[in-house]
Every structure is written in C-alpha cells, then in structure tokens.
Fold each of these.
Amino acid sequence: MRLRLSLIAGALLAIITPLPALAADTTPPSRPGGLMSCPPPSSQGGMVGICWTPSTDDSGSVAGYDVYRLTSTGFVKTSSPTSSPTIVGGLVLGRSYSFYIVARDLSGNVSAPSSFITLTATTGMQTPTPSPEPGDTRPPTQPQNVRDGCLWDFPGTAFCWDASTDDVGVVGYDVYRETIGGWLKVGTAGTQYRMFNEGGLVTGQYYTYAVVARDAAGNVSPPSTPTPILARQGLPTPSPSPSPSPSPTPTAGPCEVGYDSAMWTTGMAVWMSVKNTGTTPVSIWSLEFDFPDAGQRFVSGHNANWSQSGRHVTARNVAWNAQIAPGATINLGFNGAHTGLNPEPTAFTLNGMSCVVKP
C-alpha cells in the first residue's frame, strides 16, 4: 500500500513540476540589404516601389518590415509590409524621397536600419505630364565630406561637413545617429558653422551619423553617406577658480605652429597646433600672427583668449594650458569671417620668437 502511494505521489510530482523556462529571444534580424527601385504596378501618379533582400533571423521567421521616409521633421513610418517589395503612395510626382527599412521578428526585436535609398515619385505607366507644382520644390544637394577629427577637443563625437547648395538657400542641417531600430535625430546645425558635437557617449566607441540639409520650404536633401565618428574624451576644461601665476615668463624655446582651415562663402573654421620643440617649458604664452587679407577677421575661438587689432591676431593662454612642456603640443582654434579671399597666414611668433610653420 505504501509502495502504491509512493508511486502515485511521484507521478503527481512529475506532472506539476514546471518545465525549464526557455530563454527569451533577444537577437534582432539581420539588416535589410540590396535596396533598389521597383516599378510601381499602377498608372496612378506619385508612387515609388522599393525592393530589398530579405532579412534573416535566428528564430527562422521575420515577422515583417517597417519603411521610413525622410521629412522636414525627421523620419516617419510610411508602411509595414510583410515582405519585399513595397509600394509607397501619396507622394508628389517628380519629387525625390529618401527611405530606409528595418526588419522585425516574432519577438519584437528590430534590426539595424538598411542603407538609405533616394527615389523619385513616378508612375507605373506613361501618363500625361502634370502641371508643375507651385512654389519651391527643389531639395538642397546632399551634404558631402562628413569628416571626423575636425573638432576633437570636444568631449564625445564631433565632426564637420561641406556646404550643400540650393536654388533658394539652405537654412539648416539635421543630424541623425544610427541606432538599433532606426535613425534618431540628435540635433541640428546652422549654415555658418557646419559642425556638430554630441556628448554623453561612450569614449572610444564609434557612432554612425548622417547629415540632411533643409531649405526654407521644407525640402530636404538626401542624407549624407553614413559616417562612423569616434567618441573622444576631449581636452580638459579650466578649473572654476584658476590660480593666476604671479607674473608672466616671457621666455620661449623653439616652436612649431600648424594652421589648417576650412572655408565657405563668407566664413571659415581654423584649427591650430602649437608645439614646444625646445628643451625648456614655455610658460604664460602669447601666439601672434597677421591675416594676409584685410577682409579676414576673428569671430569666436576656443582654448585661448583671442583678440584682433587690424590684421593682427593674438591668442593668449587660458589657465589650464598656460604651460607647454618640452615636446608637448597644445591645440586651439577659432571661427572667422572673410570677404572672399581667405589666404592662410605664413608667419607666427610665440612670446615674440618666430616659429616654424608646420607643412
């Protein structure tokens, strides 16, 4: 009897013992690839067709895709097809639109975004040419030459790019960072200084950015080529209460100055380096040079106290970079303006002594 009861109890225990929990699926599908234009199967105007290579997933199934279109306020989801291709309608015939696609699996994981594709809204069959749409409908050109390292004294990611052009005029730039699941708008930049800095990131990690130009009518350019940017620690900031040295030390050893600049219609950005090539420290320094053209002028600067009188420009140290050790290099720079000519200075002095110009 006891044996029978024991067997029954064991059977019941086996029935009610829970099975081991299955691990949650946290792996996203692969990034959609191979985006290309597919002719819309309709004679209705204002459509684009997009084909792509299907994504794969460790679970074996991709639940569907989300298609995002670029607008003047950011990327918006336009459709959620279950497979390639997709047709996006409701567009203005003859205008260009930029898209990207992400894949979703059955657990809700979202892939990294596809590459961008820019297509012109058209029709599947020949139709009469429509009347031109009134107003400004031409987008700016795609921003070019997104480059890392032009503002590396800032903490986080910092980068610059070349100006876009527009038949009326570019009014600003929108900056997007790639994330798992799409492109996130992280800021904007004006037209005078085409540069962007984002803090609060992991130092030493690369982040991918794209820049979009925008005009006053809300037309947006194709996104720039996605570019990886390194998040840097940045240069140290001055102490809240720096202790001034009792008196300047006017001596300076040999020095080398680097001068690199980028210019646009009436503006410029300049990045400089000053190296102490001597054997003794340089303390309380003053770097001076003359602009070659009378129309060149300093506007704002960093890592020094800047001033200008006529063509003569002076950069004096701030508290935290007052001393340049032998063999050490400090970095400084400024934004400026010009009236058409923007030649680079050819001679520099540090504490009154001539410096070698870095080639």
Amino acid sequence: MTDRYHRQTLLPQIGKIGQARLSAARVLLVGCGALGTVLAEQLVRAGVGNLRIVDRDVVELTNLQRQVLFDENDAKEGRPKAVAAAKRLGGINSSVTIEPLVVDLHAGNIEELAGLEAGGGRADLILDGTDSAETRYLLNDVSVKHGLPWVYGACVGMEGRMMAIRPPTTACLRCIFPSPPGPGELPTCDTAGVFSPVAAVVASLQAVAAIKLLVGDYESVGQELFVLDLWKNRLRTTPTLDAKRGDCVACGLRKFEFLDSRTASATTSLCGRNAVQVRPAGRVMVDLMLLAEKLGSAGPVERTPHLVRCQLQGAEDLQLTVFGDGRLIVQGTGDSDRARSIYARYIGA
C-alpha cells in the first residue's frame, strides 16, 4: 500500500523521523474562520496526530467567501464551525484525531483547553485562527507562562501578518506589540473586509512555522515578523532576534494580565455580523432540550445537538442562538446592554 505521506517524507527537512513526530503531535487551533480553516486542512493533510479545534460560532453564508472547509449546506443548517470542520476533515484524513469544541475560549478555560491541567493531554503547539486582539494576548500569556510555542496570524483587507513565538527563546507578542490596539485604532473585517487569498497566504505561512516546530526544526522559527500586502505584491520581514525585551510585561516581568483577568461574564461584538455574544460567569452547562421547550412560547424554535435557535416573535429582527456552554448570540443588534438584557430575560441572570 502506498504511503499517503510519501511525497512529504521525501523532503529532507521532514523525512520519516519528522513524519513520526507530526503523527505524535497535539495541536490546539483557536478559531476556525478564514485562517483556521486553511490551517486545519493543511495540518490534517500533513498528518498531525491530534487537532483540537475550538470555535464559538456557527457557519453563515458570508463565511463561504474565505472559510474553505464550509459549504452552503453548513450555512443553511447553521452548523457550529468546529463541528462542520471536523466532519470535513475526517473525510480528508481519518487517521487524525480531531476534537471539535463548540466553546468560547477565555481566561477561565484556556489552560484546560490547552491540556495544561493534570491529565489534560498537553498541546505541543497553539495556532492563532482568531479575529480578536484580546484573545491573541491571552494566547501569548499562556504560551509564555507554560513555555508553549504558538503561531500568531492576522489578516484584514489586503494585508496580513505572521510571527512564530517560542518562549523563552524568542521575543513574545508583547515584546513587539506591548499593548493591544484601542477601539477604532485598526481596521476590522467589518470596516475593511477580508481578501480570501490574503487569509490563505497568512495561514500557509503559519502552517509552515507550525510544521517546523512540530518536526523539531527550531533554528529558523521565531526570527522575524512577516508583513504582506498582496494587492501591492509586497512581502517584507522584520527581524525579531534582538526584539526580546527584559522589561516586557509578559516574558520579562512574567505578569500575565490577560490570563489573570478572569471576568465574571463578558459580551463581545462579533466581527462581520450585526450580533453580540453574551458569555455567562463561570462554567455553565445548559439542558438544550429543556431550554427549547422554554423558548417555545417566545417564537419558532430549532434545536440541534449543539444549539437552540429561536426567532423572537414581535421582534423579527432578533434571533437567539444558545449553546450548551450557556453562551448566547443575539443576531440583529450590536448593543451589548440590549443583548445582556435579552440573556437575563430568556436564559437567566
């Protein structure tokens, strides 16, 4: 029988030893959108042993322009991205263990999701497929605290960036960007859009860095920040070898501000959508069957194994989507206060 990785093991940079290391590797992928879908497919095709996909959202029609694992049926059914991705990836490579988790990653659960608690199956690498600056700084905190490498990636409009971080050797995210951008400082996918080829290129650069790390080729990883503008045909690298700072809040002073800020609850405006997510305090598990019965008086209800969706009567512009971990997405408003009020009214305070 022909080895499916034959063309890959012919590469001297990987070989059979590198392939064995890939098959034994555990990767945590945070976010399964434009970047995450490309990353997931490339790593699964490369034969990474275990891929845990964490994503809080469902597939929508507007995702299909750039999120390559999904199709129209996924959007029509409103399938959770992690679940839809796992189904597609399982058909690509059944030898890879894929763990889809429909949860919102935050300071209270990230160490558990990365397998950093006792008996958790520690990840060898974290991949950034998010669209949230705050989440990236949280990933950086966990990476530095536990000495766990991660690969940063971002794209908006025609531009993208990528950097691999390998603590304690390389500069971390906060060495390069000490603080997250303030509201309105940078363009977002809402204001500037996303060019699909940019996401594909950034994610491919991330995948290269990930495979280098997983096969043990550390020397060429974490030495530069890639910045690209595809429309202008520009790709530049900024050396980061001397960027590691002794006064860096995270890797210098070892203050993990984002990891330690375990807020009681949170609301988040979702990029590219007129919607707000409300996350409850602590760990919550919702009985979706009982909730579907409860919401039946509020409007038409649809229930799947992963969520309950309700179109509110008398407020046709509002659609509620509730997940098993207690999260609520209110579609049809960008008002966080209104979303919290709806959560208290229909789900519970």
